[in-house]
Amino acid sequence: MRISLIHALRQSIEPIEAAFAxxxxxxxxxxxxxxxxxxxxxxxxxxxxNMVLRFLTLGRYAKATGADAILFSCxxxxxxxxxxxxxxxxxPVRKPNQAMIAQAxxxxxxxxxxxxxxxxxHSIPAEFPAGTQLVPIFVEDAMAALAxxxxxxxxxxxxxxxxxxxxxxxxxxxxxxxxxAHAVAAATRKPVFTTPDAAVLxxxxxxxx
Length: 209
What we know:
Structural class: alpha/beta
């Protein structure tokens, strides 16, 4: 099976490839990246028609290469990914948080949605069922630390931001932030859900009979 992985951040590639290596090593992976997408969204704050068209172009390209399914790793672009899913149906197209959200909602209670990319906290609440109690947590400077290769500072900042949150479960909403899961669990002593493993198992179930 050929799985196309589409990224808006370079830091998302390693954690999802590691999850595939653990959970579905037989899958043949293709990485497509446009890291200007995250910069443009951070600059404009608007998921406009042009940006949706860019996502459609990436999705159509992935399909043309023979992809059996597409997994996006960019958590702040939900409506654009929905547009790709409609455009390429019945090809399986998945958002990065889709499976993880289902796990967190099943757990119940107040869910902390944790992100180091501010636009994610604007878009992701709409992906939860109506009435879900959400606690948004933005971890300032964590993305910069990770981009600089300072993984220990990244994990510490995420854990500190979560430490005193009034939440029953923590949902780490980006592939790039998943590496901090153990630190968050140690700091909060609460269940922590991450996106890569859940996403791999979900997309595998969609394409393997």
